[in-house]
Every structure is written in structure tokens, then in C-alpha cells.
Design goal:
With 93 residues, the chain is mainly α. It has a single domain, classed as lambda repressor-like DNA-binding domains (434 Repressor (Amino-terminal Domain), Orthogonal Bundle), CATH 1.10.260.40. The chain has helices spanning 10-14, 18-41, 45-52, 56-63, 72-81. The chain starts with 9 loop residues before the first helix and ends in a 12-residue tail after the last helix.
Amino acid sequence: MTKTETYTSVWDALADTPEEAANLRARAELMQQIAAVIQQGEWTQAEAAVHCGVTQPRVNDLLRGRVSRFSLDALVNIATSLGRRVHIELLAA
């Protein structure tokens, strides 16, 4: 009989360490918020790329949720290009 592991979140299941899981979670949340801004603007991917200061394939990666292709730094830069300010908050575990 195999032992079934349970995780608090999908990020905990994917990551090797709690630190890596936290980083994945933060990137995913930021990507979702950026994608919402793009959708609210009703931009094509090409238009979004101009607003974000990246290429259209990067926008495609972002909209498809390819978390591994983005660092927190890159996502903060994209959000700033969209006229947004990124706020980071530390919460008790």
C-alpha cells in the first residue's frame, strides 16, 4: 500500500522547500493580477506587450500562467509599466 501525501496548497506539492512554494505563490498571484489589468484594458496580446514593455510571446506566457518563466523582479517591472504599484505584505504563517 502506498502512502498518500497531503499538502496545504498546490505550491507546496510542487516545490521542494517552503521558500520555493512561497515564491511560486507570490509569482502566481502577481501574474493573475497583471492578467486582470490586461483583460480590463481589452487589449490584444500585441497591445498588452507594448503597455507592459515586453514581447507578445512574453504576454502569452503570462496569460497562460507559465509561472516558471517569470521572476518576481520581472513581474514587478511589468506591473510598474502598467502604472501599478506592487505592495508586499508579510503575514504570520
